[in-house]
């Protein structure tokens, strides 16, 4: 039997009775809806009644949190997220989120319980950055639980995203960049070029080792960037789309393009020499491609190997005077250098591959002492000319 209660402001509570339990208590299922016409109300009531009496209603409404997580993994995470992102999310889930909520029915979890969870893990020492990761996972879980009809409302919407101050990035100024370029001459040629691609073109490490011989336009001195090497526990090492899934064309110094051209020729010669022993790497379309940076058999380097190479270089005794930065900080250095040279922020956004210009402004607009000095000179000259 179905009925409804008018709550006012076009809001109604739908009620469906499913008989009585062993103690004689009426089994009633409810759902709140907002409709503007009687016809729409009757349709909502009819659909809800059919849904309640369907065979899967009880199973869905009684679904435990841990069981829903598996459905979320299968129907969303594996289809939409990159393998390395899934790895991060699984760490949060397995170590923290699932143990806390696993036996609870997901439809019964409240906003207050979510707030209690964040308070609890924060007390146990989970840092601000990791807390933000926990929040992303929980928001995603409850978003899809609501979209898929397992919960009536998204109780995570009222849980404020944890905020933290992003650590100031370490970057090299122009003088330090010049010193670095001189020092890396002791490295193998391909390692030098890797570093230059991050420093002169703003490429991420996965994008650097994902470049193929077909991505280069030697006439225009540009590089097509639309893939990256990623490594995950679920998928291993493979080529995938870039972080924001957009193709971009990046300008490069003519001298650097010549160095890349020489490396590409060597890779092609090595491929021909190895013959059937050469494995290569599968591109996004399944075709085999020749990577500019790879093992002798054409299989890709891991992103972590790039980090290790750069760290070992900086740890050499003769480089003690160089600031210890990460490989990714070379990209930050490139962005800041371009900004200080007066390059339009929109151009820098496109070079770096940011989907939102706010990311460029908020994350990469680091100002070095050189930048402040130039600003001071500009104001000084303006002051003198105004007297």
Protein described:
By secondary structure, the chain is of the alpha+beta class. It has three domains: 2-54, no CATH class; 65-158, DNA polymerase, domain 1 (Orthogonal Bundle); 174-371, Intergrase catalytic core (hpI Integrase, Chain A, Orthogonal Bundle), CATH 1.10.443. It is built from 15 helices and ten strands. It has helices at residues 38-53, 57-61, 65-80, 83-101, 111-123, 128-147, 174-183, 189-201, 205-208, 254-274, 303-314, 327-340, 345-352, 357-363, 369-386; strands at 2-8, 11-20, 26-34, 216-217, 222-225, 227-232, 236-241, 248-251, 281-282, 288-289. The strands form four sheets. A three-stranded antiparallel beta sheet has the order 1-2-3, with helices on one face. Strands 4-5-8 form a three-stranded antiparallel beta sheet. Strands 6-7 form a two-stranded antiparallel sheet. Helix 3 (65-80) packs antiparallel against helix 4 (83-101), helix 8 packs across helix 10 (254-274) and helix 13 packs across helix 14. The protein is elongated and about 85 Å long. This is Site-specific integrase.
């Amino acid at each position: 039997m179905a009925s409804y209660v008018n709550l006012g402001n076009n809001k109604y509570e739908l009620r469906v009775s499913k008989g009585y339990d062993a103690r004689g208590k009426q089994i009633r299922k409810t759902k709140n809806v907002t409709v503007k016409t009687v016809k729409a109300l009757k349709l909502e009531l009819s659909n809800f009644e059919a849904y309640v009496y369907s065979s899967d209603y009880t199973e869905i409404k009684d679904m435990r949190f841990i069981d829903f997580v598996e459905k979320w993994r299968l129907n969303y995470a594996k289809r939409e997220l990159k393998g390395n992102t899934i790895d991060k999310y699984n760490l949060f889930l397995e170590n923290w989120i699932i143990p806390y909520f696993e036996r609870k029915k997901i439809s019964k979890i409240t906003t207050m319980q979510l707030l209690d969870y964040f308070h609890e893990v924060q007390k146990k020492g989970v840092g601000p950055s990791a807390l933000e990761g926990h929040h992303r996972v929980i928001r995603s879980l409850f978003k899809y639980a609501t979209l898929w009809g397992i919960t009536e409302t998204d109780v995570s919407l009222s849980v404020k995203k944890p905020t933290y101050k992003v650590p100031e990035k370490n970057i090299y100024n122009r003088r330090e960049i010049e010193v670095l370029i001189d020092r890396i001459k002791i490295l193998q040629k391909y390692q030098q070029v890797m570093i230059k691609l991050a420093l002169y073109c703003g490429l991420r490490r996965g994008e650097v080792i994902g470049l193929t011989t077909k991505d280069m336009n030697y006439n225009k001195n540009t590089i097509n960037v639309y893939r990256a090497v990623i490594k995950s526990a679920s998928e291993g090492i493979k080529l995938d789309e870039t972080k924001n899934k957009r193709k971009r064309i990046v300008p490069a110094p003519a001298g650097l393009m010549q160095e890349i051209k020489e490396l590409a020729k060597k890779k092609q010669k090595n491929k021909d020499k190895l013959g059937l022993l050469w494995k290569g790497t599968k591109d996004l379309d399944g075709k085999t491609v020749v990577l500019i940076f790879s093992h002798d058999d054409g299989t890709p380097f891991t992103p972590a190997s790039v980090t290790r190479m750069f760290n070992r270089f900086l740890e050499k005794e003769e480089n003690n005077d160089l600031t210890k930065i990460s490989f990714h900080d070379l990209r930050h250095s490139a962005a800041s250098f371009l900004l200080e040279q007066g390059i339009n922020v929109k151009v820098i956004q496109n070079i770096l591959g940011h989907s939102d210009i706010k990311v460029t402004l908020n994350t990469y607009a680091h100002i070095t002492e050189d930048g402040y000095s130039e600003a001071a000179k500009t104001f000084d000259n303006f002051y003198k000319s105004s007297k």
